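In this supplementary section we document a worked example of the pipeline. Step one takes a protein sequence of length 277 as its only input; no multiple sequence alignment statistics are reported here. Step two produces a three-dimensional model, which step three serialises into structure tokens for compact storage. The input and output of this example are shown verbatim.
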Amino acid sequence: MCAMRHACAIAALFIAACATGNTQTVTSAPVIEAERAFAAQAAQRGWAAAFRNHHAPGAIVLQPDPVEAAITLAEVEGDGGTNLDWRPAYAGIARSADFGFTTGPFQIVGREGIIGHYFTVWRRQADGAWKWIFDAGTDVADPGPAVALDADIPTLPVATHGAASADAAIAEVAALETANASPAALAALLASDGRVNRVGAPISIGPAAAALLWTDSVAAYAPLQRQASSGGDMVFSMGRVTDQYEGAERVRYYARIWQKRAEGWRIVFDEIVPRRI
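The serialised model returned by step three reads:
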């Protein structure tokens, strides 16, 4: 069975802060450390064991359609191989320090080159442990080299604004996605430092990312899941994308992170994952 980082391939630190607290004390270190611990266990024990130990109840992967990780992992015998290697290269965390994401390159040990970039969404659990709630990736073009294991990596600035609650944040993002259900409209809502991952293209940031997002000839977006931080400043949204490609309907899946900013909600990360059977 392939690793869940890609459709065909794949406790932590916590800095306390309330939803209206001083965001200067909040950093992305908890999600970075959670991701590194996740990857280290995969290298030492096996990718399947790592996925089992680090996912939250109800966590979703794409195999090739959305399915609970526990269901698909139950079909894997043993702990999986130890040759799947990945490193965080960018991360973000909510102002409430209970929700965040990481993304970065993954590769197969012994096989030359980076296969693509993963995207993982993390939530802090009631016991303080960080567990992932979504994991997927796509084969963006990246010549490497891979990020050093202990590298200082760039991070998303922590939000200074938030909706009244997680439910309010989800409702606001849902309304935005309904009203802006086209590539051009979504591109206008991409943050100035927003990142876009697309198959075969380099990772794009800012204006170049907006241009890449706009070029998607998407016919329809169908949201399947939205989750938010307790501080109401970060929302994860994922769903189905359909369009016409080479004379037939094509199905893919989008995954994106919204952040509440002074100017309103903005997309800070967006990827589309092909549906591979």
